[in-house]
Amino acid sequence: MTQGPAPRPLSDDALSHLLGKQQFGTLATVKRSGHPHLTTMLYSWDSEARIVRFSTTVDRIKVGHLRRDPRASLHVQGGDVWSFAVAEGEAEVSDITRVPGDAVGRELLGMIQQAAKPENEDAFLEQLVAERRVVIRLKVNRMYGTALDING
Q1: Which one of 60, 98, 100, 125 has the lowest number of neighbouring Cβ atoms within 10 Å?
Q2: Span 113-118, average pLDDT
Q3: What does the DSSP 8-state code read for residue 138?
Q4: C-alpha–C-alpha distance, residues 60 and 37, integer Å
Q5: Is 142 exposed, middle or buried (0-12, 13-18, 19+ CB in 10 A)?
């Protein structure tokens, strides 16, 4: 059996680029048992601040996990099954957005890509309040990942 090429580690810039071009990833939080809790999430990457933001509702289990143990990771798939990026760090959970247009609501609105901005911003901000939305901010202190260069 022939040994194929080894995966190559991605640079910090390549990892940041991969995080920036994807929208979905798997968020891992820590259950009380110590086992990982995994969930697919839509996210927004702020490369300058090195923060991954997620929108969720306050009653989700991941919110409870993060309030108890802030350690979390985001796994993002690259363009093929052999490439990926992982962003690790500690997360904080914002307050609930309580008034349409408050700071948390504006932060949630800012996470939406320009092409997907809601037509009726006021109605959107009211919906965020009704859903009891929060922002999870994963402050990234370590990134790693690989790619596998296969010709043909």
Answers
A1: 98
A2: 78
A3: E
A4: 12
A5: exposed
pTM to 2 decimal places: 0.93
Give the pairing type, strands 71-77 and 51-57: unpaired
pLDDT at 152 over 60: no
| Count of beta carbons in the 10 Å neighbourhood of residue 34 | 7
In this structure, the chain runs to a length of: 152
For the record, the structure tokens of 19 come out as 């995080």
Q: Can you tell me the distance from the alpha carbon of 89 to that of 66, in angstroms, rounded to the nearest whole number?
A: 11
Report the first-to-last Cα separation within the chain, whole angstroms. 19
d(CA 36, CA 90): 15
Is residue 84 within 8 Å of 75, Cβ to Cβ?
yes
Residue 68 pLDDT: 98
Scan for tokens 């991954």, then name that residue.
52
State the alpha helices, DSSP H only, in the chain. 12-21, 61-68, 103-110, 121-130
Q: Which domains does the chain have, with CATH numbers?
A: 8-97+133-145 (2.30.110.10)
User: 147 near 71, Cβ under 8 Å?
Assistant: no
